[in-house]
Specification:
This is Phosphoribosylaminoimidazole-succinocarboxamide synthase. Its EC number is 6.3.2.6. GO terms for molecular function: phosphoribosylaminoimidazolesuccinocarboxamide synthase activity. It catalyses: 5-amino-1-(5-phospho-D-ribosyl)imidazole-4-carboxylate + L-aspartate + ATP = (2S)-2-[5-amino-1-(5-phospho-beta-D-ribosyl)imidazole-4-carboxamido]succinate + ADP + phosphate + 2 H(+). The protein is an alpha+beta fold. It contains 6 helices and 16 strands. The chain has helices spanning about 40-55, 100-110, 150-155, 155-180, 230-240, 255-275; strands at about 1-5, 10-15, 20-25, 30, 30-35, 65, 80, 85, 90-95, 110, 115, 125-130, 135, 185-195, 200-205, 210-215. Strands 8, 9, 12, 13, 14, 15 and 16 form a 7-stranded antiparallel beta sheet that branches. Helix 1 runs parallel beside helix 6 (about 255-275) and helix 3 crosses helix 4. It binds adenosine-5'-triphosphate and magnesium ion.
């Protein structure tokens, strides 16, 4: 198989007309891959995405072709998918305010051109979920916020609207399901692509601890950073070392942080799916 793309987390191979997406154990923070892997993370994210694709199948078609028909060496962390023409927008939706959305709000009172009420703090629930798309940057670049109008210019009004509406539907359904299991999905990023027949499909990974912020609903307490089952833990640790994303060398992750990160990913998987991770 030909390696056609190495993303921060996934290796992408071409196989016939399909792609094989292999999720590695790499972890990236602020678009920088850290030198230490989180063993088992690739398999966890693959399993969680597959579970979500099934839950969401009546809302949106997805790119999965087969879970079994992948090279044995990648079994468990690879999927065979339709090769799609990827939509050049990352479809971000936020139900709660934090991270880069919060930073933008504090500067301007708005996020991606959407005005928000005064007085919101880190972790506030938004009156309504908002669509805050970004560009899809090339390797080494950062994704930049876009207004909906800018996505219309980039994709055409019809496609931009379908991507936005599907994103909101996936978020509403996903966050409803997650909340029943005690998890708030604060925000998430979806990717879409178009197949050879012209069908718009959900691609990449969906509602995982890498692509979303998962918070403990029972501990939710706006005004500070929230207890989370996601990458935020690694982000916070990386920052606490004094490292900055522009520094040449990223720090090795100590074993206790690797273990605690993995424990969070496993907890999210088990809570959401109701299955035991082994
Ligand atoms: P990000 O961190 O934003 O996800 P990345 O490019 O580093 O960026 P990876 O998840 O590591 O992401 O790599 C997966 C790549 O494969 C992404 O570029 C994604 O857009 C692409 N991709 C996912 N599904 C498909 C598909 N069905 N057809 C074509 N490309 C796909
Ligand atoms: Mg990705």
């Amino acid at each position: 198989m030909e390696l056609i793309h190495q993303g921060k987390v996934r290796d992408v191979y071409a196989d016939g007309g399909d792609l094989i997406l292999v999720a590695s154990d790499r972890v990236s923070v602020y678009d920088v891959v850290l030198p230490t892997p989180i063993p088992g993370k690739g398999a966890l994210l693959t399993a969680l995405s597959l579970w979500w694709f099934e839950q969401l199948a009546d809302i949106v078609p997805n790119h999965i072709v087969s879970v079994e028909d992948v090279p044995a060496e990648f079994a468990g962390r690879a999927v065979r998918v339709k090769r799609l023409d990827m939509v050049k927008v990352e479809a971000v939706v936020r139900g709660y305010l934090t991270g880069s959305g919060l930073a933008e709000y504090e500067k301007r009172g708005s996020v991606c051109g959407i005005d928000l009420p005064a007085g919101l703090v880190d972790g506030s629930k938004l009156p309504e979920p908002i669509y805050t798309p970004t560009s899809k940057a090339d390797v080494g670049d950062h994704d930049l916020p876009m207004t909906f109008a800018e996505t219309e210019d980039a994709l055409g009004t019809d496609l931009a609207t379908r991507v936005r509406d599907l994103t909101m539907s996936v978020y509403r359904r996903g966050s409803e399901i997650a909340l029943e299991k005690g998890i708030i999905i604060a925000d998430t990023k979806l990717e879409f692509g178009i197949d050879a027949e012209g069908t718009l499909r959900l691609a990449d990974e969906v509602l995982t601890s890498d692509s979303s912020r998962f918070w403990d609903a029972a501990a939710w307490d706006p005004g500070k950073s929230q207890a989370s089952f996601d990458k935020q833990f690694v982000r916070d640790w990386a920052k606490s070392t004094g490292w900055r994303p522009d520094d040449a060398v990223a720090p090795e992750i100590p074993q206790d942080i690797v273990d605690a990160t993995l424990a969070r990913y496993i907890e999210a998987y088990e809570l959401l799916t109701g299955r035991r991770w082994s």
